[in-house]
Amino acid sequence: MFGFDFPWGDGNQLFDNTTTLGRTFEFLFHAAIAAVVLTIVLLVYNRIVSKSLRDKKNIQIRFTQNLVRFLFVIAAVIWVLVSSSATTDIGKVLFQGTAIIGAVAGLAAQPILGDLFSGIAISFHRPFEIGDRIELNNGIKGVVMDITPRHVVIRSIDTIDIIVPNSIINSSIITNTNYNSKTRSLNLKFNVAYGTDIDHAKKVLRKAVMDSEFTVPSWKGKDYGPVYFSTYADSSLVLSTTIYYPVTAATEAVVSDINTRVNKAFAKEGIEIPFNYVNVVMKDEEK
């Protein structure tokens, strides 16, 4: 297929595709061309397509982007295998050989195809979007960071990325804490002592919540999370309020921040947080 003339000898004999060395050179030549073309195509694709859609959190867009990249790579590999005479015999064995080889290849590809079709189903039905906080019925929970033809990337609270195959995601029960919503909410309760000025305590609590860096900015300055006098407890008055915060924020971090701010605000304003105590009465046996 390829022949090269060299000043020091007969290059056609040295790199003739009928020799082992010639076939090897031809295969490497095709592989180099495929690698260069694939690199250029991916660079152009990432710059033109991916950059314009970088901020899109639609799971269909993200899945399609990664699928197209995957198809580019597969196309390059197939082109090398088909174009090079060094791999022609391999192709004949694979495609014209025994049915056993085909069955083995089919079985080996089952997990990959299962994940691929599961990814297509997920992107079509969209049980979550990029940035949503989800929890699977096997206990895995976190923020969805990405989806590829094979897996979904979930980032846990301690910033550990968990790679979950699409087939597992597709067959799991998914709890989406912010399905079709831009914010999450959480109801918190706080106890104050009997005799506390309720109106004053409600104002202090509301301000502490609004000052938190986790509260949704669009709510600040408005009637954010009204504070309610919920009920009478055994030794306290119970105040409650609803916290609104971004979908990407960890609930544990939000609760910790709000509790810390409320505790400091109550201490500064002299609002007592009651605690249980026991009066012990000693019986005088002589009397």
Could you explain the architecture of this structure?
With 287 residues, the chain is an alpha+beta fold. The protein is 46% helix and 17% strand. The chain has 8 helices and 8 strands, in the order αααααββββαββαββα. The chain has helices at residues 11-14, 20-50, 59-83, 88-96, 99-125, 166-170, 198-210, 251-269; strands at 133-136, 141-147, 151-155, 161-165, 174-176, 183-192, 228-232, 237-246. α2 (20-50) runs antiparallel to α3 (59-83). The radius of gyration is 32 Å and the shape is elongated. The chain starts with 10 loop residues before the first helix and ends in an 18-residue tail after the last helix. The model is unreliable at 1-15 (pLDDT under 50).
Q: What is the global morphology?
A: elongated
Average predicted confidence as pLDDT? 77
In the sheet with the most strands, the strands line up as: 4-3-2-1-5
Determine the number of helices (DSSP H or I, runs of at least 4 residues). 8
Distance between the termini: 118 Å
| Class computed from helices, strands and strand pairing | alpha+beta
The helical percent reads: 40-55%
Number of strands: 8
- Largest sheet geometry: 5 strands, antiparallel
Radius of gyration: 32 Å
